Amino acid sequence: MKIHREGRKPITVITVAIIIVWLLFLRLPFNTKIPFTLAAVAGVVIIFFVVRFFRIPNRVVNKVDNGVISPADGTIINIEEVVENEYFNDKRLKVSIFMSIHNVHVNYFPMDGEVTYVKYHQGNYLIAKHPKSSTLNEHNTVVVSRNERETVLFRQIAGFVARRIVCHLKVGDPSVQGEEMGMIRFGSRVDVFLPIGTEIVVSNGEKVRARKSVLAYF
């Protein structure tokens, strides 16, 4: 397991801040044994969860030539036919993946192809499970295309806690199934828009793993 580069700064800042708090407790003019112990335990727990959030697990990519694998760890919270109005302007099958604060938050390419569209949108911070969070929340939209029939849009969506979407892609970049394409900090959601007629092989409530779980077959 590795720690994502995006985690280096927050981990360092939080660790330094906790050490400063510990030192301040030691300088107080009264018996600080109990409050110092509580502060020490709380600090260790906070550091543990922050380090855990930025972890990158070692996984072998489940390469599926004719399918789409999950771009994120999380739980399937919605599968429905919708009208996608940002890029396709037609009906698509949407699969929504909710990423809790306990999930790995690195995102990966769901298929091979080429990046044909990237656009970041500022927005609100509704709870990520909210139906309208896909369009009203801060989000980043990426489209990957292999051919006219096999084109997938996936959207990184900031949640109530998330405050930064990371994505450095540009149009023309190659999409390699299972390779990293970005991350979302601290609780969020990813929506995947698939062509009508795609065979969805997951169901609501199912746990999925990035780079491993197959969402659908073309």
Describe this structure in words.
With 218 residues, this protein is an alpha+beta fold. It has two domains: 2-56; 67-217, Glucose Permease (Domain IIA) (Distorted Sandwich). 21% of the residues lie in helices and 36% in strands. It has helices at residues 8-27, 33-53, 133-136, and strands spanning 2-3, 55-56, 67-69, 74-84, 90-99, 106-108, 113-121, 139-145, 151-158, 165-166, 174-175, 180-184, 188-194, 199-200, 207-208, 214-217. The strands form four sheets. Strands 11-7-8-9-13-5-4-15 form an eight-stranded antiparallel beta sheet. Strand 8 and strand 9 form a beta hairpin. Helix 1 (8-27) packs antiparallel against helix 2 (33-53).
Secondary structure blueprint with pairings:
Elements: E1 2-3, H1 8-27, H2 33-53, E2 55-56, E3 67-69, E4 74-84, E5 90-99, E6 106-108, E7 113-121, H3 133-136, E8 139-145, E9 151-158, E10 165-166, E11 174-175, E12 180-184, E13 188-194, E14 199-200, E15 207-208, E16 214-217
Antiparallel strand pairs: 1-2, 3-16, 4-5, 4-15, 5-13, 6-12, 7-8, 7-11, 8-9, 9-13, 10-12, 14-16
Number of strands: 16
Strand arrangement across the biggest beta sheet: 11-7-8-9-13-5-4-15
**Helix/strand order:** EHHEEEEEEHEEEEEEEEE
Number of domains: 2
The major pleated sheet works out as: 8 strands, antiparallel
- Head-to-tail CA distance between termini: 32 Å
- How would you classify the quaternary structure? single chain
Residue windows where pLDDT falls under 50 for at least 5 positions:
none
User: What is the C-alpha radius of gyration, as a whole number of Å?
Assistant: 20 Å
CATH topology of the largest domain, by name, is Glucose Permease (Domain IIA)
In DSSP terms, counting alpha (H) and pi (I) runs of 4 or more, how many helices? 3
Structural class: alpha+beta
Strand content: 35-45%
